[in-house]
Amino acid sequence: MLDNIANFLNRVTTWRAASVTIATTILLFAVYLDYIQPLRDYGGGAVHLDIRFGGYMLADVLAYFGTLGAEGRSFYAKTTLFDTIWPLGVALSGALWAPLAFRRSGLVVAAAFCPVMFGTLDLFENVGLWIMLAQYPDVSPAVAGIGNAITLAKQAMIPGATLAIPTLPLIAVLRKSRRPGLA
Length: 183
Prior knowledge:
Layout: H1 2-12, H2 15-35, H3 37-42, H4 58-101, H5 105-135, H6 141-178
Helix pairs in contact: 1-4, 1-5, 2-4, 4-5, 4-6, 5-6
């Protein structure tokens, strides 16, 4: 199975696609950081749910959504949509750079794992946030619990994804410079 995944990634990967994807992802992340600034004002300085390290409980969800008010909850829903795009770029960047950095199937899949899982878990996390926003004030305890579990799992992927994004292109460039003709 690892060979199949690695072979697929090798077939779809090009230097140009990997470079454009990572540059676009970095740009989107920078724009996102600027875009979400009003969320802090709506929330009275509180940290939004998807970046609460240590997680959250239903009471935290209700308190935070109450503090945001209707306008703030609407803005949070919009920022969550934007927050889906750049993490998927992280996932795609990891998947495209891994086969350029490594040849062995196991290393390709291992190198892509954290970025791909980060982007995928972020997508599911955001679906949970949208559901909770739509349910407010009658947020389901099960949805809050599942959302929290997904948030914690995503947060566990952050160090590996953060390390992979600059490291995989560097390894790929070094590998290419040692073996001209790789591309």
